[in-house]
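In this section we walk through a basic example: taking a raw amino acid sequence and producing a predicted 3D structure, encoded as discrete structure tokens. The instruction is simple. Fold the sequence below.
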Amino acid sequence: TSDEPLAVRASNEAVIYNVRSFTLSGGNTPLGDMIEDVALMFNNDGQIDPGLITQPKPNGFYNEPSIDTSWKCRAKGVIAMTDGYPNTPVDSAAAANKLYQQNVKVYSVAYANSTAHPNDGGVGSVMNKIAWKGGTCREYGHTGEIIKPEDTTGYNKYLTNVKNNPSVYKSCFYNAYNGIALKQAMQSIMN
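The resulting token sequence is shown next.
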């Protein structure tokens, strides 16, 4: 590897090409599976096999103690992002709730889907529920009090408010339908 700008750019372009050309067989969107994998990572001391251990556990993690244990006292958050409806057996919202139970907030972003809505019965409904069960859904979407993941009545009231007054009540997930909206979503999450 090199620090030369052209070499860095070439490397970045190669990574971007490989990510964009990666497809799963069957066209699945395994969002719940991926969220569960993150929960496993946090359960296993935050360590991912960096290639230094020759025999990691089957899930890719190992039980070596973390060199940097300061992550345990830091605020933790996960950003779940998808451009499609999660369609694997793992319930994405339940997986997000596992992380919430470990004091890890889960933010959700629907990318490249301009029609996603909290009550659409599709990707918007799933992403909104992930934010709720992940502890990041607020009564007005991104502002107001947090709707606790166990508060089903409060969440249902919020959904009714979104349906009846969408100009005031917004989605709990971020709808990043283009690059500018994605940048705004990331800035909002990081604030």
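Looking at the output, two observations stand out. Confidence is low (pLDDT under 50) at residues 46-57, 59-68. The first strand starts at residue 76 and ends at 82. In the next section we compare this with other chains.
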